[in-house]
């Protein structure tokens, strides 16, 4: 009998394993049954999502790619003649816009630069000036320059003096705008001392003197014997 003990122990182990396997299979069956019931009770669209076989396969007739937006050809770039700037630099384009503001008014290069927000010196200004001259879009006449062919949107003729004063005041710096407005409001002629009195400032110092210089350099006014007079375009 002692020789049979190993076989008896092995038989017992097999029996225990067999019972465990049966219990596991029974549990699997219960889980599958629950899933089946859940799937059958689910709404139609949920059952379709659960069953991957009901989904159309890629390439089947029921699948369509979203329509592609039509490819539009790029708009042609305007020609230099149509755009009015051609190969002008940024400074050249700004100055051309100034000259096209109220043609056929002629301005000095200094005036054009000031109204364009530029300093009439240095490489930026000189390169822009050269590009304008080379383009043929402007005409030089002595110390003055004007646009050769105004654009269709340009308002021709002189700007009313009051509007011209404000246009310049937006471009001038320092004390110049207040000086210009004061002289214009007082008939276009005024002593420098009276301007200082009206503005409540001392008629001296860099801020004061720079304002007068900027106005003279841009031919906005003349000063003789301490009396300032606006040029013809600015007279009220």
In short:
The protein has 236 residues and is mainly alpha-helical. Helices cover 51% and strands 9% of the residues.
Keyphrases for this structure?
single chain; 236 residues; mainly alpha; three-stranded antiparallel β-sheet; 6 strands; 51% helix
Describe this structure in words.
- The protein is mainly α.
- Helix content is 51%, strand content 9%.
- It contains ten helices and six strands, in the order ααααβααββααβααββ.
- The chain has helices at 5-41, 44-50, 80-83, 90-99, 109-115, 122-135, 161-171, 176-185, 192-199, 206-217, and strands at residues 107-108, 138-141, 144-147, 189-191, 221-224, 227-230.
- A three-stranded antiparallel β-sheet has the order 1-3-2. The chain has a three-stranded antiparallel β-sheet with strand order 4-6-5.
- Helix 4 crosses helix 6 (122-135), helix 7 packs antiparallel against helix 8 and helix 8 (176-185) crosses helix 10 (206-217).
- The longest helix is centred in the N-terminal third of the chain and has 37 residues, at 5-41.
